[in-house]
Amino acid sequence: LEILVTILNENDNSPVFAQPNLSRDVPEDTKVDTAVVAREELSASDADLDIIYYELTTTVQDTDGYFAIRGVNNPEIYLQKALDYEKFNSTTLVLYARDRPVTSPDPANTATATITIIIKQSDTRAPWFLPCTQLHNDASVCISSPYFGRVNITEMPRGPLLLEPGPIYAVDPDYTINDRIVYSIVGGNTDEVFSVNADTGNLTMNKIVTSPDSFLLQVMATQASNIRKYSVVTVEIKAINKSNFAPYFEKSVYNGTVFVGLPRRSFVYQAGDPSTPLVITAMDQDFPDV
């Protein structure tokens, strides 16, 4: 008697990942649809030779939707949405491997792999002149104000010019890169009156100004290792007559009168003359006609 025995494969083995823990550094400026972890590194094996079904989730709040797998049977992880280092700089993904579809009524054996994604800040932003104000809805933009300064006619300051709201200063907003900033004057410097220190941003004078004038300088801040990243700010310098005298009041004491019951913004009158409003005036010998 010849007996044929067929051995039926029992689903008694779970899928196995070759590397259950992976870590990847992903540049912030990685293009959408770029593969982050290759299929070969994430494919699970199964001793039962079952077809493997994959599912990807994230464990970090507000980081879902950025990474995905190519398909239910293709575990390659790719970038699905553009990254922003200011929003998050790391996340943890969990890849599930099952030997049955999620919708199958049969019990499935499951394996998991943990993928840690570290976002590396890229050189995406031009220098910021400080102080500046960031937009509430866009942390990549910071709006700076012009700088202002004054110089006296026929005088040559020895040191850097004093400016408002402060000295010329720019930073690399990609702070983990923190590239060195180089300063230069690119416009408005008539007769080369002014110079800027390439390293510090300090503004100095090369020659005196002999008449009242106004200079609108354009100062550029460039990243030392990436000349395509630059910003330009306006610096207004006014040349004025030197003030030799302090202003003074015409009187040392002023006396006024008010009446009970007057509404707000009513005049204060001169004491002893209730028909003439009280006027306080000052003079300056530098400006006799003002």
Automatic annotation (TrEMBL):
Calcium as UniProt keyword: yes
InterPro entries to which the protein is assigned, alphabetical: Cadherin, Cadherin-like_dom, Cadherin-like_sf
Pfam families: Cadherin
Molecular function per GO: beta-catenin binding; cadherin binding; calcium ion binding
GO biological process: adherens junction organization; calcium-dependent cell-cell adhesion via plasma membrane cell adhesion molecules; cell migration; cell morphogenesis; cell-cell adhesion mediated by cadherin; cell-cell junction assembly; homophilic cell adhesion via plasma membrane adhesion molecules
Main location: membrane
Keywords of this entry: Calcium, Membrane, Repeat
Record's protein name: CDHR5 protein
